[in-house]
Amino acid sequence: MKDKKEVEEFYARLKNELDNTTEWPSQYLYKFIVPTDQEKIKQIETIFDNTGAVISTKTSSNGKYTSLSVEVKMKDSDAVIEKYKEVSTVEGVISL
After folding, report:
1. For residue 4, is pLDDT > 90?
2. What are phi and psi of 11, to 5 degrees?
3. SUPFAM superfamilies, per this entry (predicted)?
4. Which of 38, 47, 72, 77 has the fewest CB atoms within 10 Å of its CB?
5. What does the pLDDT read at residue 2?
6. Structural contact between residues 54 and 72, judged by C-beta atoms closer than 8 angstroms
7. pTM of the model
8. Which residues contact residue 81 at a Cβ distance below 8 angstroms, ignoring those fewer than 6 apart?
């Protein structure tokens, strides 16, 4: 687990990069990998409820992991980062 300072620096760099490369509002593609567990997949889907997100899932060849691609229109970089923070509470999730 990264310490709080590393996490804050990561999000600050991400915000800067998003603000410098994207005109808002804009479509944004999130990609996550979670252990294949319907409860964890549902948690991520719930985070994006009522946002108009298009979510697609694909299970790995051995069935141990599921990748989720979430395409959604976001109003600004802060909204993008907020969703990453919400998803980071799901146990075992990897954000790509």
Report:
1. no
2. -65, -35
3. YbeD/HP0495-like (SSF117991)
4. 38
5. 64
6. yes
7. 0.90
8. 11, 14, 15
In Å, what is the CA distance from 85 to each residue of 17, 47, 88, 94?
Answer: 17, 10, 5, 12
For the chain, give every domain's residue range. 4-95
- Rounded CA-CA distance 43/39 in Å is 6
6 has a pLDDT exceeding 60: yes
Residue 1 has pLDDT above 80, yes or no: no
CATH superfamily of 4-95: ACT domain (3.30.70.260)
In tens, the pLDDT along 13-25 reads: 999 999 999 999 9
Backbone angles phi, psi at 20, to 5 degrees: -85, -15
Chain centroid to CA 49: 13
Q: In the sheet where 54-59 sits, what is the strand order?
A: 54-59, 65-74, 26-35, 94-95
Kindly state the helix (H) or strand (E) to which residue 62 belongs, with its residue range.
none
